[in-house]
């Protein structure tokens, strides 16, 4: 065999160069058109419900059918990614109406493009036969991407309909954990042998007739499918066709193993400006490829997930999900926050005697806690970022601690004096001002240390420092802020 | 002229396929090696300083030179992006030592790769001649990328050394605002005429001998340089060479204008899985191209910028910047937070009489304010994301408001009851529990409405809702939380 063109043997999606629309403005126009068609349909329905009568019914039916046909025509012209965008922006009832109008053969591609939560809402309305048909229109790696949302019996039936090679591919793709290269890779690659000439390679490509998207190099493999190099298309195009693949190929190649972390692969793609890279097993046999579009989707999704989890949302939320689902998505973090707020409240409770004597303490204490929390969040954000980029190592951690302590001292002097003077003037009580300034300085130091050690400890015990760091920090700065300020006031003022 | 190969006429960076290292682990190994070499050098220096004497000096010099040579060898083997990574992770003194060892001809590429703040620290140590040499080793679009950090006289001298065409390119690249397609595009493209055959195109590419990175299509232009289509390399490779470019090219092409927002172009790249796209002027003349690597860098940088600004950092901060610079980077937001905390403090101050009578109010009020802030932040995060993705439109905003009010009511009943019972049991005061529950419910409603209307208002007045939304929200939920709780308590309990 000279070479192998492995497409996972499923049909390919259409050429992405052929698009009707391109800019966000266009997209929003399409969305607005769909929305106004839907509004028109609602209006007609309402009119009929109000008036009734058999002739009205006839007219309404006619108008309704016209509107549906117009909507369907509109949808048929749109790229699957754009249909997905429109589905995301529609409330559930309208979303399902539009989903019904989408041609069945496009279901698979569109399910791939929508977000997890919206995909769930669409899959719920499909029966087993529809789901099977949709899945069968996809490549194996794409089926693996949506498999988590498919009912178990659909997956099982799907496995029985695939031939042995594709079944093995799908099962291996399903076996890799979510954040690994294995979960992102696909199987659409073109391989070639090292001992042929470029002329032969060119003729071979022409015989294939079509190439996968995002393909910027051929993989050069030996008799045992082991990767021995890559042949960039630009070298193939610019080198004398008489040369052999072996003479032109690049041997030192950025490559990945399926169990590598997706995060590290993404950093390598960014760092080395890659478009695609081979994925090999432990003995160097080629098993798939990773492409920039999968990496970009991963980067976007993990940035989104970080942002959502930092705000205390369990997972991505369908903008139009039911109140009940939305509330459940937010409860865990609210419960945790409530628990930490209770603790902080008990810290204050311990000083109720002092507060009764000097109610000004109650008015001033949130300033100490709040600024501590803000300042600690600045530190924690820099540390989380430094950890993610690999810039923080055991040998430079000491310097970081010194720097953050320095910043906390400087801020403590500047802002501590400011709030001290404020408290002094407001309550005409210089001692209260002094306690305020000292408490601010101390809580900023606590915030700096917590801002460094919380994420570094989470990282050391192999947990994602982006998740939960902030809640822990606020807990520390609140409780300690109240304790330091009320404690100092009780000791020095009362 | 059959076709044009425009490289901005500057030399190209080396092939990115040819790399020594690939994974984050490898990178961290390199960093550790560099760090241990630096540590060894410090040790030798310290020994000599302690012992002194002329012979010692000789030995030290020898060892020092050996170490330097070893370090330099190490650096020479690394990809510019990897040297950049090491520079980012080193404290200032060691960073500058390493920077001195980097071969001058690689300065330009490495300056491109480091972050803005680290680039500043490196440029400060370079004289005008070094900066000119570094800049001249780059493409015009790359010079534009670092121009903001170059001294004005270097830019001016640079402009005089460039020929007319390149000067015009650089000036136009410098003219586009940071977040536009014009600022991200480059000028490395290959153009071709529609009336030639693929055979001629193939021969032409072979004559060029080298192609730019990330090139997956040729641009087809007419006599006036107007873009009339694109010829994907994969079509060029798989179609009969006798066919004409006109017959094979794709005419309906995703294309951008230099003044388009980078954000929208990035979404189009993600949505349509693009590797590269043409940039044209108002009359359709080709002026540059946008590539996926520039888009990925933009996505990463803007996600980082969002994260930093949400945490209240003015800009990206060098991990090892001086205490003074770091403090200045954080002051603006701390000052704003302090101002809002003062207002909240005065709200409490207005109820000092009530607190004196019932100190339990002081202990409970942070719970109301805190949970309101957390809940509002969940809403605001979903809204900011929906706005960024274009999912929120005037016609669906009403539904969103209803959903968030529903979630707030549900949460208010659930969590309000919980804190109400907590307060009742703790203080053996059922009326206090009732006030607590009611205040929680009301503040969650305030939080939901603020969480929707703050980002939507910022968006409507054309400001980035990601910046400042959170501070405003916390201000509202704190002040209103204190006001509602203490106000209700004063009315109903005292």
UniProtKB/TrEMBL annotation, chains A, B:
SMART domains: CBS (SM00116), MgtE_N (SM00924). The chain crosses the membrane at residues 331-351, 363-384, 405-427, 433-458, 470-493. It holds the Pfam family CBS. Its main location: membrane. Keywords: CBS domain, Cell membrane, Magnesium, Membrane, Metal-binding, Transmembrane, Transmembrane helix, Transport. Residues 1-25 are annotated as: Disordered. InterPro entries: CBS_dom, CBS_dom_sf, Mg_transptr_MgtE_intracell_dom, MgtE_N_sf, MgtE_transporter, SLC41_membr_dom, SLC41_membr_dom_sf. One of its GO terms (molecular function) is metal ion binding. Residues 185-248, 249-307 form the CBS domain. It comes from the Bacteria. It is found in: Cell membrane; Membrane. GO terms for cellular component: plasma membrane. It is a multi-pass membrane protein. The keyword DNA-binding does not apply. Belongs to the SLC41A transporter family. Acts as a magnesium transporter. Homodimer. This is Magnesium transporter MgtE. It comes from Thiobacillus denitrificans (strain ATCC 25259 / T1).
